[in-house]
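Researcher: Let's try something more involved. This one mixes different molecule types, so please make sure each is placed in the same coordinate frame as the others.
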Amino acid sequence: MSTRALLRVRLPGRLAAEAAALVIAAAVAFPLYWMVLSAFKPAGEIQSTEARPWTLAPSLDSFRRVFEQQEFGRYFLNSLVVAGTVVMASALIAFLAATAVTRFRFKFRTTLLIMFLVAQMVPVEALTIPLFFLMRDFGQLNTLGSLILPHLAFSLPFAIWMLRGFVKAVPDALEEAAYIDGASRTRFLWQILFPLVFPGLVATSVFSFISTWNDFLFAKSFIISDTSQSTLPMALLVFFKPDENDWGGIMAASTVMTIPVLVFFVLVQRRLVSGLGGAVKD
Amino acid sequence: MTADTTTLRKTPGRPGAGGVTTRPPRRRPASPARRSGWTPWLYLLPALVLLGGLLVYPIYQLGLISFLEYTQAQVSGGEPATFQGFGNYATLFGDSQFWQVLLATVVFAAACVLTTLFVGCALAVLLTRIRAVPRLALMMAALGAWATPAITGSTVWVFLFDPDFGPVNKVLGLGDFSWTYGRYSAFALVLLEVLWCSFPFVMVTVYAGIRAIPTEVLEAASLDGASQWRIWRSVMAPMLRPILIVVTIQSVIWDFKVFTQIYVMTNGGGIAGQNLVLNVYAYQKAFASSQYSLGSAIGVVMLVILLAVTLVYLRLVRRQGEEL
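Model: All components are placed in one shared frame. Result:
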């Protein structure tokens, strides 16, 4: 491992570095700890001005308030449907596109690659206005489609760009051998290339999942009258009140909203780090 | 591209080729898949349809609306949209608030990018100097921050710094100092949240890159008596250049268009709009005051700035001789 050379630091130095790393880890984890802790605090403790880093009587009241809120479960499901659809569809579509631009030579190939790169830079937030009119004209306002379609399109350029390295890494000889053995092009694509590129697809999905799950602007702008089609961020806003915020509710809703992403991250963590490494080596 | 030029350079010397009519031979024979003309376009079709309909066309529309008069009356179809030429841009550029927001956006994004890159790189180097257990702890904490949705990250950070119930003011003994009241303290608070959720990407990517550097190179450097700082500056940083460019550009893009954090943490752009950035400003103009054309013009300005950044990026990539 390449870190060995650097590990040859004098022992006191290394212990100091490790102590520093642990302190920083604690500081970085603290906001999440505080979020979960506050979600379990009874209302009285949150309102008290002491701000204790533990709780005397953990309670589920805040969570109860969150789930009693009309349609919270529905919002949660909507968020899962939107993010799940975007992740799967963008992985599939990006896989095909990445295969096209890496394993074929054709006119405008380089132009397309540059366009995919440029597309990543487009500030999608600036497109909220034209997309609003587009969704309105196609009768898509207040539907999950108005959230799925733009996120699908916006996650594609980055996904294609990232998958390119993985598709490129599969040796040509393998492809030729498959054809000599009589495999059709479709068979090679799905039975050989797809499984080999799968780790890359996982790393890519992390990015599309996060950007879609995070979405606040589109949900706020495109889901305006039929709130049953809304997503989790909107459910969170209910607890912000003009006179006094319901911090227990906000923290409980935040916790519920963060857990699926954390689970997803833990599941793909290994693949993510090696995936980034793979993209980097390319 | 590079492959073609090298073969071209070799061919003229071939005996009997004449140098004109024969096509230069391919570097390697095309596999059956490569010969068919339509297959790549078939594979690209879904991606191109989606991008064309939901990215290219909206960009065209954005530009179009920015040249029209487009307010509530036109949206509801009550009045026809009239062409304004550069009228909207004149209004925008004549507004001192626009310049103030533009400046704030650039300074805020630059501060976010610099702190994120510095902290991310420093922690990536730290990760290489420690054993597995503390490394795992830091990695897990960072992944947690990275995974946290922007909106929940924003609410938690506001709560941490809440003047009445937050632990930070208690520990620092700041009493009921309100972070979101002042312009600079509000921006500083948002910056901390942005740093918190975006340094992990830099740290993990740079760490993965450092691990890809061959051991011998680093050993040779330390045998030659180079200090840690010197190894980083003279050996690792140049080898990591491609990654550093990627994380820098990604950070510029992300931090330049921060929306959720500003919107949630400063309640829509701060007191009297003191914490507005271009994105939130465009949103407020378009959706809160129905001035869709002004909002679109702001969008176009953002687009132009980010495209300029992209061009710089492309030049950097090209200069490194990377094959697309």
